[in-house]
Amino acid sequence: MKFVALVSGGKDSIYATLQAIENGHELACCAHLAPLQTNTLEEESYMYQTAGSEAVRMQVEDCIGVPFYVREIHGRSKNTSLVYDTATTTNTATNN
Predict the structure, then answer these.
(1) Which of 70, 71, 85, 93 is deepest in the core (most CB within 10 A)?
(2) What is the mean pLDDT of the segment spanning 46-72?
(3) How far apart are CA 70 and CA 13, in angstroms?
(4) pTM
């Protein structure tokens, strides 16, 4: 089965991609959701780690050898507190 790997640049996404290939699946391309380009050295993502994001293109094109697609992430966390209040937190997946 052909698949698209969503890679972050971290070892887990690369390992999962290699495991899928090892189990007989065909890698069609890789996709990456990158943080917005800012003047800061490290921008925290509201979704996942961003460290090493700038190296993902080289990992994919030079090491894995498949097409690479990248899109910037837009948005911010709605609730950054340590305790979520379910009465005030909305589910954005159902409100789109």
Answers:
(1) 70
(2) 74
(3) 15
(4) 0.64
